[in-house]
Design brief:
- One of its GO terms (molecular function) is ligase activity.
- Pfam families: AMP-binding, AMP-binding_C.
- Keywords: Ligase.
- It comes from Amnibacterium soli.
- This protein has a 7-stranded mixed β-sheet, sandwiched between helices. Strands 13, 14, 16, 17 and 18 form a 5-stranded antiparallel β-sheet that branches. Strands 2-1-3 form a 3-stranded mixed β-sheet, with helices on one face.
- The protein has 2 domains: about 200 residues, ANL, N-terminal domain (Rossmann fold, 3-Layer(aba) Sandwich); about 100 residues, ANL, C-terminal domain (GMP Synthetase, Chain A, domain 3, 2-Layer Sandwich).
- α1 crosses α3, α4 packs across α6 and α9 crosses α10.
- The protein is of the alpha/beta class.
- It contains 11 helices and 23 strands.
- The chain starts with a strand and ends with a helix.
- The radius of gyration is 21 Å and the shape is globular.
């Protein structure tokens, strides 16, 4: 067994703690947000475990995911290969999420510490300052969630010269933590951002599929419509929850698989995610994928950042509801476009306009809060 240390996720504390956890000179690490709750976890963990990540609980009860140093470093090595070589990293994500942990791990694996952005809420100016402070003779990388990318693109389009110089000096910007709307992706490319879409989870040591292509060593299959991932980046399981671990991680001769709970399609070379299996609603007796509805809505002008959630309806059962900050959005036009693309049952029944989309600390949309707004 190995000791488990609870560590605040401020970079000055987290970076040396992660270095020691990876090389075995220190205890395993559970990063937590400063001032945030500390999960109830054992004081000791199995020897392979280097990092424990508390999930955000966006689609179920939170879990403590136990990840080995082998999984973290395998992911870092495969990422380095996919991006074209080692480089310096800017840390712009919270360190208590797997995406933030992996920025630190990738930087340490490349022989350098990541450069954190200025403390406080994320701003495009803080990112630009950190990127431009990186060494000019090495490749430059960072990782963002879509909300952060949106602010960066807004800054470039508004004429921010420092932001434009910064993003164009980055060799890759990994985007994860939620689906990247195609409209935002197009704007980012036009702004000179080298966007790489990533897909993965804490259970896979972070992103393990880039632009639909699995990293080296990562296995992909779709079973009964569910995406399953295998390979050396898989976590050990959930601390103190053997039954939940057995349900999520399938043990087969010669290979383990993680059941993602996502619906998708795999052609042997490229993976596409169509939504969550638990985001299929029955409306008027017909099955509707909220992920597909959201994608269709986001393809409409002015609704690139809109989100779609379920809400109860006395007549139809559950129905798709659009939540957006676009005050000019027209429900009739949305219903017509989505109905033409996906069928009448998929057409959203309501449209809720909010001043701001509620977010989790990770920057992901808080879908539970959105569903409550939609239900109200």
């Amino acid at each position: 067994m190995r000791e488990l240390a609870v560590v605040p996720d401020d970079p000055a504390t987290l970076i040396p703690a992660l270095r020691a956890a990876l090389d075995g000179t220190g205890p395993a690490v559970l990063p937590v947000a400063e001032g945030g709750p500390v999960p109830d976890v054992p004081a000791q963990v199995p020897l392979p475990v280097a990092v424990v990540v508390a999930t955000s609980g966006t689609s179920g009860a939170p879990k403590a995911v136990a990840v080995s140093s082998r999984a973290l470093l395998s992911s870092a090595a495969a990422t380095e290969n996919a991006l074209g070589g080692p480089g310096e990293w800017v840390l712009a994500l919270p360190g208590h999420y797997i995406a933030g942990v992996q920025v630190v791990v990738r930087a340490l694996a490349a022989g350098a510490e990541p450069l954190p952005i200025a403390p406080g809420p994320f701003t495009a100016a803080a990112l630009a300052e950190a990127v431009l402070a990186l060494r000019p003779d090495r490749r430059r990388y960072t990782a963002l969630v879509p909300t952060q990318l949106h602010r960066v693109v807004d800054a470039v389009e508004a004429g921010d010269a420092a932001m434009r110089e910064a993003v164009r000096s980055l060799d890759a910007v990994l985007i994860g933590g939620g689906r990247l709307a195609e409209g935002l992706a197009e704007r980012a490319r036009a702004a000179g951002v080298a966007v790489r879409r990533t897909y993965g989870a804490s259970e896979t040591a972070g992103g393990c599929v880039y632009d639909g292509v699995p990293l080296a060593g990562v296995g992909v299959r779709v079973v009964d419509g569910e995406v399953q991932l295998g390979g050396p980046t898989l976590a050990e399981g959930y601390l103190g929850q053997p039954e939940r671990t057995a349900a999520a991680f399938l043990e087969e001769p010669g290979r383990r698989w993680y059941r993602t709970g996502d619906a998708g399609e795999w052609d042997g070379e490229r993976l596409s995610i169509t939504g969550r299996l638990d985001d299929v609603v029955i409306t008027g007796g017909e099955k509707v994928s909220l992920g597909l509805v959201e994608r269709a809505v986001q393809a409409l002008p002015g609704l690139e950042e809109a989100l779609v959630v379920r809400a109860p309806d006395p007549e139809w059962g559950d129905v798709p509801v659009v939540v957006t900050t676009a005050a000019e959005a027209d429900l009739a036009a949305v219903r017509e476009a989505v109905g033409a693309a996906l069928g009448r049952a998929a057409a959203p029944r309501r449209l809720v306009v909010v001043r701001e989309v509620p977010l989790l600390p990770s920057g992901k949309p808080d879908r539970r809060a959105l569903a409550a707004l939609a239900a109200g």
